[in-house]
Write a structure and sequence with these properties.
The protein is α+β, with helices and mostly antiparallel strands. About 30% of the residues lie in helices and about 30% in strands. The chain has a single domain, classed as 4-Layer Sandwich (Phosphatase 2c, domain 1). A hairpin with a 5-residue loop joins strand 5 and strand 6. The radius of gyration is 18 Å and the shape is globular. The N and C termini lie close together (about 10 Å).
């Protein structure tokens, strides 16, 4: 079985946590975990991120049809007549968000990870970085990521016959495996630390309570090592027996 032994967020604006656009959820048995980062420049991206997370919890196999259903749910919750003209224009431009989803197989010895965007899953084996997905290097964050959009025309990549194959991996896990799920700001910081062999990234493994994340984030923001953005970190362990 899987255990989510750490889950915490630090908002971009520390005094306005209600503006945090990162959303995560996992079921009681921790067989499905989903994380979404709403794009700040888009209209009500937190709602869109929330719906993407909910959809993955219901069905962990995203597809073009899966996204269409999620988009219909989003549109059904918007009353355009109640919006100002400027908000209507923002709505038409669309909302955008990442999706990082984990499904633990029934055996408990494998997990499938689905990823669109720049939220990142990192597998550690006995404390060493083994694999990162969907991004592998800190430089990858300099490229504009694919995002799920509320504008149907922006989701053409989902019609690729190999869409799910390009955006998912399956990994064997053991009790020595640690899985970290991170939104982009902390993921970029993490991969930079790994590449520079600074060992700073190991501090994430020592965090015991959610309250311990914010001081670390504030410190790294102050030095310029971490970009100022909403931060979400989940840490998952596997008990196999």
């Amino acid at each position: 079985m899987a255990r989510c032994c750490f889950a915490a967020q630090t908002p971009k604006e520390l005094d306005r946590p209600e503006l945090n656009e990162d959303v995560f959820a996992f079921d009681q048995a921790v067989t499905r975990i989903a994380l979404s980062d709403g794009a700040s420049e888009s209209f009500d991206s937190r709602t869109w991120a929330h719906l993407l997370v909910q959809s993955f919890e219901r069905d962990p196999r995203p597809s073009a049809d899966w996204l269409t259903t999620t988009l219909e749910l989003y549109k059904s919750g918007i009353d355009l007549t109640s919006l100002s003209w400027s908000k209507q224009a923002a709505f038409e431009r669309g909302s955008f968000a990442t999706l990082l989803g984990v499904e633990v197989h029934e055996s408990g010895q494998q997990v499938s990870v689905f990823g669109v965007g720049d939220s990142v899953a990192v597998f550690l084996e006995e404390g060493a970085v083994a694999r990162s997905f969907p991004l592998q290097k800190s430089l990858d964050f300099q490229v504009r990521p694919l995002l799920f959009s509320t504008r149907a025309g922006a989701n053409g990549f989902t019609t690729d016959p190999n869409f799910r194959g390009k955006h998912s991996i399956t990994v064997d896990v053991t009790p020595a495996t640690t899985l970290l799920l991170m939104t982009d700001a902390i993921a970029a910081w993490f991969l930079t630390s790994v590449e520079n062999a600074t060992e700073e990234w190991r501090r994430l493994l020592a965090l015991g309570s959610p309250e311990e994340l914010q001081p670390l984030v504030r410190e790294q923001r102050a030095t310029g090592a971490m970009r100022v953005d909403d931060v979400t970190l989940l840490r998952v362990q596997f008990d196999i027996g």
